[in-house]
Amino acid sequence: MSAEEKAQTKHSKFGHLPLSTSGPQDCALVGSALLNTPYFNKGSAFPSNERKQFELHGLLPQAVMSLDQQVKRAYQQYSTRKDDLAKNTFMTSMKEQNEVLYYRLIQDHLKEMFSIIYTPTEGEAIQRFSQLFRRPEGCFLNIEDVDRVYHDLSQWGTAEDIDYIVVTDGEEILGIGDQGVGGILISVAKLVLTTLCAGIHPNRTLAVVLDCGTNNEEHLSDPLYLGLKKPRVRGTEYDEFVDTFVQSARKLYPRAYIHFEDFGLPNARRLLDHYRPSIPCFNDDVQGTGCVTLAAMTAGMHVSGLKMTDMRMVVFGSGTAGTGIADQVRDAIAADSGISKEDAAKQIWCVDKPGLLLKSHGDKLTSAQIAYAREDSEWKGKGHDDLLSVVKEVKPHVLIGTSTKPKAFTQEIIQEMASHVERPIIFPLSNPTRLHEADPKDINEWTKGKALIATGSPFPPVTYNGKEYEVAECNNSTCFPGIGLGCVLSRTKLLTDKMLVAAVKALAAQSPALKDPDKGLLPDVVNVRDISVHIARAVIKQAVAEGLAQEKDIPDDEDELEEWIREQMWDPVYRPLKHVSQHGASRHAKGEMGIAGSVSDS
Q1: Can you say which residues are annotated as belonging to the binding site for a divalent metal cation?
Q2: Which residues are the active-site residues?
Q3: Are 498 and 482 in contact, with CB atoms under 8 Å apart?
Q4: Which residues contribute to the annotated binding site for (S)-malate?
Q5: 54: which residues sit within 8 A by CB, 6+ positions away?
Q6: SS3 of 367, please?
Q7: pLDDT at residue 277 above 90?
Q8: For binding a divalent metal cation, which residues are annotated in this chain's numbering (predicted)?
Q9: Parallel, antiparallel, or unpaired: how do β-strands 25-27 and 139-142 relate?
Q10: Domains of the chain (ranges plus CATH)?
Q11: Do 97 and 34 touch, CB atoms closer than 8 A?
Q12: pTM of the predicted structure, to 2 decimals
């Protein structure tokens, strides 16, 4: 039985839920209006009865195709595109026409297409946003129209219509820096991943860019640039703009979870720390990277027999990602051993451009780095200006690279580390591939097959003395969608440290290395929907335990809770349509979900 047939024959005990995916969908549209609504459109797959009922005869060729046949045709078309950017553009066009076909095509070819719809190809699309622009997607807010923020956000639905918001200010995009208004595409791409990887309903999400100007001279001098042509606004005016967005979003969409994405180093951690105590929010660059890396570390420590309380870690590259990883590891050490976060931080050494972070660096330290700055007296007379000196002194079990400095993990550094540790855990995480700190093949060779490796980009297996070892990819997409799903379904008031720890444990429990130490430390992204269910279940249970879940009647039983979650996950299948009158129809039935009211009313 196909996935489509299974979805249409489900008789779930949770079919009454608002986010249920069982049974037919109400639809008040007919004719061309129906064909022009991406979340209802089936194209050539509309069955005969629906063609008659929804007045589609004459608008479609005679033959009725299956979704599988459509996917085959679409893949053939995709394969003829001459380069990756052209394939990315083709996929964007498909998404604007038929959401089910778009997601099903990716799902069937996930390994091949992941780099097309996300990094690195999406980075190029973002850089060329103004040149490739065809039609708007998402909500564009700019700092010169702060008084319009509430109104402009209000066009996207009612309080019940939005579950998940991704917002960026476009300052630090995918390792390619300040992209200004083009940042809207990273918000769009992240939401695609939440749907693909965790079944977040695509027409219940909102992508937002906060246009504060740009310091990218190439964009400022481009006559086609679509954003504000002014240097980035900082300080109080910036903070008030962000706060106006957050407060407006909370008032308009009180059930929505807010995901901050690709904010710059001066703002990412600061804004997260400011809003976390009061709203359900998340920053993937800080928390997502930290969670997935900690999950890989947890699996690595299981293989090596290392306890969290005994672990020593060096982080090379102490920006948003590096300190985010440090925070997650610190919190896990504190939780595992019952010590304070301050004491747990003493097991972590952070290195950046000036070398080891020291208290004497003073104002040069970011707010996120201060917790990891060491006392100068500890390092009096010891080398600390370069990574090798720090590794020699610390003798770390774990070495993390988030520096975007290619080949920074030299043979001398890796072999120095391996001389003190039986199974060194080494994660060169910088993206894209050309920026990684070391090639896994070299690390494996230099450590004689003993290193436990995870990377920020996909790499093939490595061998030593004829034995093959899988290289895990620290792909945030195995983590953040499941966390978001758990928060959305539980309608949690906050996303707490304990909920993140629960997510990490759920992800680590899926590690193939727990059964075979030569396998990857993290599960493959192709299994991500099942992984997301496990993570969401852990997050929901923790939200309930902390008294933060606002959704009613969440099942206590593990199996029932899993069924409850799966029933509310959107699948790329064609559901039957039930014709209803425009009068009294819901916004969903009238095709108004996922688009601004001003667009649907035109």
Answers
A1: 261-262, 285
A2: 118, 190
A3: no
A4: 431, 475
A5: 27, 29, 30, 31, 34, 46, 577, 579
A6: coil
A7: yes
A8: 261-262, 285
A9: unpaired
A10: 3-120 (1.20.1370.30), 128-264 (3.40.50.10380), 287-474 (3.40.50.720)
A11: no
A12: 0.92
